Amino acid sequence: MQSINPLNGEVIQNYTNHTFEEVSYKINAADTAFQHWKTTNFESRSNLLIKLAEVLRKRKQELAYLMANEMGKPLQQGTAEIEKCASCCQYYAKNGPDFLKDQLIQTEAQKTYVSFQPIGVVLAIMPWNFPFWQVFRFLCPALLAGNTAVLKHASNVPGCALAIEEIVREAGYPKDVFYTLLIDAKEVEKVIELPQISAVTLTGSTEAGKKVAAKAGGLIKKTVLELGGSDAYLILKDADLKQAAEICVTSRLINSGQSCIAAKRFIVVKEVADEFIRHFKSFMESKKVGDPLNEGINIGPLARLDLRDQLHQQVEKAISNGAKCILGGQIPALEGAFYPPTILTEISADNPAYYEEFFGPVAQIYVANDESEAIKIANSTSFGLGGAVFSNDLKRAESIAANDLQAGSCFVNAFVKSDPRLPFGGIKESGYGRELGLFGIHEFVNIKTVYIA
């Protein structure tokens, strides 16, 4: 396994994969540790989460550099990611114990209540695009609930994966409560088969999710899947168009466009389409592409050269099928896996781009005849992760967000983002289950009914 800098193609470090015997040993150790860890009190678990937040903040700059070098994230975005991880630790340290308190329910019995019990070792299969946040948003509630965990991270960020294990140890957690597994994707099925694995959480592509769900389902093991997205943002005729365009561009270019919940499709009603597109293009043109270690850079290299080339092929295919490229669309004359901010318009329903997820700084703009058609276009894909509505009629926009858009998260006059306080997840082929908030911590516990006659 290698860590390769997408800026220049240089090998940062070579890593030796864990053998399956080593993997089995670590999972056995995590299962044994679970027997004690589940009996520790909430005060002890909360204190360790607080310490975890302190370690993250202490190492914030170092970890941001690690992300920049391993997967191209601009430094400022990297430090923000670590801060978000620390805030998640603090949120569950403060609120997790209340979320897991017994819930009394009045029945004819002397006493009836719901108890929340940890279930064991949870396998996390995580992606490279937010190499710390994706892990910590699962890990914080899992550990607070009394579970133990093992991580199979993306193969291009082994340095981040091992750093997470170091951070957990440095915070004072028992050694066997958490392990990183350096294994290839082809070995995941064998890991899921191990009887010590109680559940699986995956953030990744829809195809990866289908394989994991099928395998775990055949073994009756719980899964939570956060999969691909092609988030649709609706811009209505009464929206503040300049502000909407700025927010939309910010969302499209989060993490250099490599985010499941980045805005990807912008559906604007025709009365205001020209003005919105003018503002949108201007904001896209203003973004700086370059070395993620340099100050003021908005877009670093994509995580791997093959991913950049795949994105460019999607753009070329979209254009060959009738789409119009009004910005970007060409591989720049820069060393590294760079791709410029790109805008595609005039995408018909028979264009492959209409149904695909573009994982990079490529925006699709659709012009709808009216609000009703805009909603129809938004819902016409297999994805259902997030969506947004821009309008000065807040009551109407809220109604569309709450009742009409088919997605797990819908925002009004803001871009979609995950927040430790709010449940996060998708519907349709964007996955199932929820992370974060009250609902997230209840995914990997036994919700047990206790009845006393």
UniProtKB/TrEMBL annotation:
Keywords: NADP, Oxidoreductase
Annotated Aldehyde dehydrogenase domain residues: 2-450
InterPro entries named in the record: Ald_DH/histidinol_DH, Ald_DH_C, Ald_DH_CS_CYS, Ald_DH_N, Aldehyde_DH_dom, ALDH_GabD1-like, GABD/Sad-like
Source species, domain of life: Bacteria
Listed GO MF terms: aldehyde dehydrogenase [NAD(P)+] activity; succinate-semialdehyde dehydrogenase (NAD+) activity
Family indicated by similarity: Belongs to the aldehyde dehydrogenase family.
Name of the molecule in the record: Succinate-semialdehyde dehydrogenase
Organism: Solitalea longa
Lineage: Bacteria, Pseudomonadati, Bacteroidota, Sphingobacteriia, Sphingobacteriales
